[in-house]
């Protein structure tokens, strides 16, 4: 089986390639990048002239909600949303019900993804068992998951996302165990004694709305602690959803010391500020919360100078009725898979903060390296996961057209530049239509994870 993507602008940061070329795919693998018109005559030809061809985008921070919260999202709908956003691979966070804390849950997720998925799904295991231990000290002694068993079952990393570990001893032991297993630790950085009862960023907007705030220092303190524990243990550490200027600077210093630490941010932290919460807009409520203009500029600077390695989404679906209540009672989180690329292109590439090559690297090559995933490259022999982009297309975000089961986005009605047209997954075209309304690929045979 051969597929030729003909005449596109091929961008591959792993090989420093940016040129007009044909991409030849054979038997689910990248065969070659060749001059236009010189590809195999036997291949199925797809004309992508005027479009951009990149390694399949990878999101290492996604909440697929299954098992346990399928009314918000499930693996099928979540991976359809991923494909609509150009992602061929996603890493799902462990705060499911039951949590990703035992090997059978890992196996269940992988099996469902192989059967129903429109993108590869890589489970992330929990560091601790949320149901164990009545106190912080109990958790420190007995709350760790069996990470070796989870890795054997198929997890690619471990995380405390949604349940940031407050006990330093528990985090230390978790990092030591993860290091022994060769797993990266992905941390949600929050000192909860400073954010208890808070629902948005501590600042002028929160004061005007009469809402309790969540100060930036709560993120910075937790980030500093986890960086020092990574120094002690030698563990690979990845800082999730960076939102503050302080944490950007902490990561910058850690990298100067050559510590094994990386970081990510999400589109809402460079495209919005806490002013988006005005009017008690619960679709702008997330954790970490939207911050100040100064934090936004620091995030952009961190992306520009390479301090921040990865662009992720923290895709966090919630049902309408959950968001449609008082601001302080509504859950944290927004959907993000289908808007991420366009927000990055509109807010980062067009203004010159990142080159297109740098943006692609932060959405494919870098995340693949951090958690050891296949993909992120168009080198011969690599899996044929590819994303095709139309940089000229302007479009307006409409929640009625999203593939996610949920609609909780603060970007409704926003006009953006750049559109994902389709993806290729293991050499097979996944095309859910230019407006994300239909799909033409038959993936019933399952996908390799």
Q: What brief labels describe this structure?
A:
single chain, 449 residues, alpha/beta, Urease, subunit C, domain 1, TIM Barrel, 2 domains, eight-stranded mixed beta sheet, six-stranded parallel beta sheet, 19 strands, disordered C terminus
Task: Characterize the main sheet.
Answer: 8 strands, mixed
CATH class category label of the largest domain? Alpha Beta
Number of helices: 15
CATH superfamily of the largest domain, called what? Answer: Metal-dependent hydrolases
Describe the 3D structure:
With 449 residues, the protein is of the alpha/beta class. The protein has two domains: 2-53 and 383-430, Roll (Urease, subunit C, domain 1); 57-371, Metal-dependent hydrolases (TIM Barrel). It contains 15 helices and 19 strands. The strands form four sheets. Strands 1, 2, 3, 4, 5, 17, 18 and 19 form an eight-stranded mixed β-sheet that branches. Strands 9-10-11-14-15-16 form a six-stranded parallel β-sheet, with helices on both faces. Strand 12, helix 7 and strand 13 (213-214) form a beta-alpha-beta unit. Helix 2 packs parallel to helix 4, helix 5 (168-181) packs across helix 8 and helix 8 runs parallel beside helix 9 (245-256). The longest helix has 18 residues, at 216-233. It starts with a strand and ends in a 19-residue tail after the last strand. The model is unreliable at 132-142 and 436-449 (pLDDT under 50).
Write the layout of secondary structure elements.
Layout: E1 2-12, E2 17-26, E3 29-34, E4 44-47, E5 52-55, E6 57-62, H1 75-84, E7 87-92, H2 103-116, E8 120-123, E9 125-126, H3 136-142, H4 147-153, E10 157-159, H5 168-181, E11 184-187, H6 192-195, E12 200-201, H7 204-209, E13 213-214, H8 216-233, E14 237-239, H9 245-256, E15 261-265, H10 268-271, H11 293-304, E16 310-311, H12 320-323, H13 340-349, H14 356-363, H15 365-371, E17 386-396, E18 415-425, E19 428-430
Parallel strand pairs: 1-4, 1-5, 6-7, 7-8, 9-10, 10-11, 11-14, 12-13, 14-15, 15-16
Antiparallel strand pairs: 1-2, 2-3, 5-17, 17-18, 18-19
Helix pairs in contact: 2-4, 3-5, 5-8, 8-9, 9-11
């Amino acid at each position: 089986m051969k597929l030729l993507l003909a005449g596109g602008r091929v961008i591959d940061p792993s090989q420093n390639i940016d040129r007009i070329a044909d991409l030849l795919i054979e038997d689910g693998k990248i065969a070659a990048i060749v001059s236009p018109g010189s590809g195999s005559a036997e291949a199925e030809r797809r004309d992508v002239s005027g479009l951009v061809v990149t390694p399949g985008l990878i999101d290492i921070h996604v909440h697929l909600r299954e098992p346990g919260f399928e009314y918000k999202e499930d693996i099928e709908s979540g991976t359809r949303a991923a494909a609509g956003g150009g992602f061929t691979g996603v890493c799902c966070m462990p705060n499911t019900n039951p949590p990703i804390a035992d090997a059978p849950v890992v196996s269940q997720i992988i099996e469902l993804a192989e059967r129903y998925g429109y993108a590869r799904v890589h489970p992330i295991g929990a560091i601790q068992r949320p149901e164990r231990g009545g106190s912080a000290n109990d958790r420190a002694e007995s709350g760790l998951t069996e990470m070796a068993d989870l890795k054997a079952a198929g997890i690619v990393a471990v995380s405390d996302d949604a349940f940031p570990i407050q006990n330093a001893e528990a985090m230390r032991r978790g990092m030591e165990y993860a290091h022994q297993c060769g797993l990266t630790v992905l941390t949600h950085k929050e000192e909860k004694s400073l954010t208890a009862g808070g629902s948005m960023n501590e600042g002028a907007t929160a004061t005007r709305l009469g809402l309790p705030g969540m100060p930036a220092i709560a993120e910075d303190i937790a980030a500093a602690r986890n960086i020092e524990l990574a120094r002690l243990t030698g563990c690979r550490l990845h800082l999730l959803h960076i939102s503050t200027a302080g944490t950007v600077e902490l990561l910058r210093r850690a990298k100067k010391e050559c510590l094994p630490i990386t970081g990510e941010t999400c589109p809402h932290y460079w495209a919005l500020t806490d002013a988006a919460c005005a009017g008690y807009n619960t679709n702008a409520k997330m954790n970490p919360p939207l911050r100040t203009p100064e934090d936004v500029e620091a995030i952009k600077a961190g992306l520009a100078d390479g301090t921040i390695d990865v662009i992720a989404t923290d895709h966090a679906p919630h049902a309408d009725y959950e968001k449609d209540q008082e601001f302080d009672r509504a859950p944290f989180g927004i959907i993000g898979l289908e808007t991420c690329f366009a927000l990055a292109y509109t807010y980062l590439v067009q203004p010159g903060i990142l080159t297109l090559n740098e943006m692609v690297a932060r959405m494919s090559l870098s995340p693949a390296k951090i958690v050891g995933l296949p993909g992120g490259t168009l080198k011969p022999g690599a899996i044929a996961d590819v994303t095709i982009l139309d940089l000229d297309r302007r479009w307006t975000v409409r929640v009625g057209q999203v593939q996610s089961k949920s609609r909780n986005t603060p970007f409704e009605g926003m006009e953006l530049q750049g559109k994902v047209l389709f993806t290729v997954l293991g050499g097979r075209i996944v095309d859910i239509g230019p407006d994300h309304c239909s799909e033409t690929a038959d993936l019933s045979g399952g996908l390799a994870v």
